[in-house]
Amino acid sequence: MSLESAKMGKISEHFSDTDMLIIKPQKKNPLISAMILLALLMICGVYFCLICLKQKGFIINPNSMRIEQIERSCPNPNISKSEVPYVHYPEPTTYRRNECRCTPVRFFAILSMQRSGSGWFETLLNSHINISSNGEIFSVKVRRSNMSTITETLDKVYNLDWFSSASKNECTSAVGFKWMLNQGLLQNHDDIVSYFDKRGVSAIFLFRRNLLRRWVSILANNHDRDTKQLNGTHKAHVHSKDDADVLARYKPKINESLLIPTLKQADKWTIDALKYFKGNRHIVLYYEDLAHNRTKLKEVLEFLRVPQRKLKSRQVKIHTRPLSEQIENWDAVSKALKGTEYESFLQSD
Ligand SMILES: *[C@@H]1O[C@H](CO)[C@@H](O)[C@H](O)[C@H]1NC(C)=O
Ligand SMILES: *[C@@H]1O[C@H](CO)[C@@H](O)[C@H](O)[C@H]1NC(C)=O
Ligand SMILES: *[C@@H]1O[C@H](CO)[C@@H](O)[C@H](O)[C@H]1NC(C)=O
Ligand SMILES: *[C@@H]1O[C@H](CO)[C@@H](O)[C@H](O)[C@H]1NC(C)=O
Ligand SMILES: *[C@@H]1O[C@H](CO)[C@@H](O)[C@H](O)[C@H]1NC(C)=O
Ligand SMILES: *[C@@H]1O[C@H](CO)[C@@H](O)[C@H](O)[C@H]1NC(C)=O
């Protein structure tokens, strides 16, 4: 803002100089001339204010353009050649990065599936001062209508022009969001792979090993969406043990004939996604590993090239008991999975 008003001031000064040149030859009553000049100045001021407000300060001034050019060249970061495509200096259109304009920014996307711990993972990342992960932005259907709306949305995020509660704006050094495989990602994979390639976006795959637990979580979450068990509001994630206990009380009944096909489907999505994006810079994480081994998080921070810090989340796990206590028709389910490749899901966390 201050820069804009300074620019405005400079322009009206220029203007007043030329005005004076035009007015001078008349030279009648110095007081009247001064008054006219003052009035002209005021009109000009108001006029330029209006223009500036309308166009957000895009008055082209050779001086300021030169300054921006100088501003753009930041000192070369001390990085290896292979890192260069992943380092960016975004210039947001909605604000200035100010003292952080030379802080290099990495682009990432968390590629995941619903109920795989990505909400929890994202709160952990956002507890880092240099990371902004902007949530599930493609849950809004119009944004994933076609590749042009997808590109437009991605450009806005990576230009640091996306505003969410997670955006830390000017001093962010890693920016991203989470993207579910079924939110236009697999559908448009060719174009998205080339976008990631071109813009140097790194992929963070986050999957859940135990797909049966994931399914229980999906069914319980759907149930809560309908019944709103916590004081009449639906909660996909909770911050207290009491709330978690309330949600975990519900034991879903699983349709046995859908059991194997559903697990196979989720497996296939995972395999496809890894295949499509194998040429992009990526890391593969499993929810179970992150939950049991916090040093895994160090790897993530290294991958994002941000300083190591302790990450925190207020979220509390909902389903903590053995699956046998959390599935209504446990006997039928365990019978259906015995002897299949998914048998281990019955016992593991
Ligand atoms: C650049 O990085 C290398 C290795 O990370 C380090 O040894 C070197 O001192 C750095 N140079 C400067 C100028 O910071
Ligand atoms: C992280 O953010 C802090 C606070 O905004 C900033 O001072 C620091 O330079 C940033 N560090 C990196 C590596 O971007
Ligand atoms: C993409 O989707 C948007 C929003 O639904 C629509 O306005 C636009 O015409 C579509 N573009 C193409 C190329 O299909
Ligand atoms: C919701 O209800 C529980 C008791 O069932 C209560 O302890 C809690 O404070 C309530 N939370 C809100 C946000 O009203
Ligand atoms: C289980 O799923 C099958 C296939 O979609 C369906 O035909 C059947 O009615 C379902 N059974 C129950 C009890 O919902
Ligand atoms: C925890 O993760 C780190 C980093 O991936 C790994 O080196 C270590 O072996 C893991 N520890 C356990 C107990 O799995």
From TrEMBL:
Could you list this entry's UniProt keywords, alphabetically sorted: Membrane, Transmembrane, Transmembrane helix
What the entry lists under InterPro entries is as follows: Nod_factor_sulfotransferase, P-loop_NTPase
Task: Tell me where the transmembrane regions lie.
Answer: 31-53
**Name of this chain's protein:** Sulfotransferase
